[in-house]
Amino acid sequence: MDIVSIIIQLISGAVGGNIAGAILKNFSLGTAGNSIAGVIGGVAGGQILNAILGPGTVPDAAAPAAGGMDVGSIIGSLAGGGVGGAILMIIVGLIRKSMAKST
To answer: What single string gives the DSSP state of each residue in the chain?
Structure first.
């Protein structure tokens, strides 16, 4: 995995975490918490999606000249990062809410 894919996953994970926090206000961790959970979930989600689908799932003739990045891998990194960030933010929000309820 190259650094460009990881950067895309970091950014899309943070965005996904903040969007999920805005939609599901009960589980929101605040802007900073949503971003941190989103970044971690974004990289994890992007890596899992890349492992399942494989790198370069959409062939592109210009990909070797561009350093291996093609439209398919960029879209995969965006989708995996955004969804992974949202999912991890929701999981952490659920855990936080259940811990606060028990005390």
So the answer is: --HHHHHHHHHHHHHHHHHHHHH-GGG--HHHHHHHHHHHHHHHHHHHHHHHH-S--S--TTTTTTTT--HHHHHHHHHHHHHHHHHHHHHHHHHHHHHHHH-
pLDDT digits (tens, 9 = 90+) for 36-89: 999 999 999 888 887 887 765 544 444 555 556 678 788 888 998 999 999 999
Q: Is residue 3 within 8 Å of 74, Cβ to Cβ?
A: no
Q: Which of 53, 98, 101, 96 is nearest to 77 (CA)?
A: 53
pTM for the structure as a whole: 0.80
